[in-house]
Amino acid sequence: MLGKDHVSITLGTIFPFAIPLIFSENSHPVYAFCLLAATVIGSLIPDADSDEKPKLHYDFKIIYDIMVPLHKLIVFSFSFFNLKEKMNLQYVVEEQHRGIMHSPIGVFISSLVLTLLTAIIGYFIFHGINATLIGFLFLGLISGQFLHLLEDSCTVSGINWLFPFGTCELKGSIYTGNKVEGKRDIRPFLYRVSLLVVSAILLILHSLGAIDVNESGIYLLIFAVVALIWGLILLTAKTDNDNLWIRDAKKVRELERAVDRIGKQDDVRKRRNPGK
């Protein structure tokens, strides 16, 4: 998927989990911000293996400049230590798009390295480490990257979830570009809106007192709802019906701008009325 789709769908998935951190009696907005910021960055990290400059390069260049050599180092390590033979790997680890950076092992390594670098820098600057904050940072990075893989699994190229150890491909029918000239697949937009609706409903129910975000089971409830939506996402991503999903690109862009305007207006309202 495109970088903007990765960011919006991933943020829509994780934001409901940040709501209790923000609005509970023992609120931790700093932790919520760290989680969301790390999630956004994580949602773009795997594309550091792209031949072209991805959204990560333009929005978080310092992270991109770390990830590119890290990708090369991982590839070099597999070759230098002859890990394909020693570990009986099915695939050769090379510098390729949707290779090692688009695999669970690549997700774990890159998340761990970035977290450790942040912890080391934070230690020298602040003369200490907030272990909880670092934990949320790692959680956001690994969650964002894992969701990136899920989102790419909805596309026609798909993802090999066992790379480089074996083959377990998961792919859908969504084209990242225009399958038909002047038209776009509307599903990424629908996925984004569906996940944002979860956050909106949760905030409304909280404001009405219908849901207590302090309850211990709130995260289980959020997980169940988000997992249900993701089940529908993966199911609909496999359907190949151009009449249903392919729409005029201009109209899709207008819908996206309309949603963005609503979000910006809501942000302005919250800044003017922080207590509401």
Describe the model.
Helices cover 64% and strands 4% of the residues. The protein has 276 residues and is mainly α. The chain has a two-stranded antiparallel ribbon. A two-stranded antiparallel sheet has the order 3-4. Strand 1 (159-160) and strand 2 form a beta hairpin. Helix 2 (29-42) runs parallel beside helix 7. 32% of the residues are buried.
Task: Offer a few descriptive terms.
single chain; 276 residues; mainly alpha; two-stranded antiparallel ribbon; 4 strands; 4% strand
Short note summarizing the structure:
The chain is mostly helical and 276 residues long. The protein contains 11 helices and 4 strands; from the N terminus they run αααααααβββαααβα. The protein has a two-stranded antiparallel sheet with strand order 1-2. The protein has a two-stranded antiparallel ribbon with strand order 3-4.
Helix run count: 11
N-to-C terminal Cα separation, in Å? 36 Å
Specify the helix fraction band. 55-70%
**Proportion in β-strands:** under 5%
Query: In angstroms, what is the radius of gyration?
Result: 20 Å
- Unreliable residue stretches: none
Annotation, overall tally of beta strands? 4
Q: Give the SSE order as H and E letters.
A: HHHHHHHEEEHHHEH
What would you call the structural class?
A: mainly alpha
Oligomer: single chain
Integer average pLDDT:
91
Biggest β-sheet: count, sense, barrel?
Answer: 2 strands, antiparallel
Major beta sheet, strand line-up: 1-2
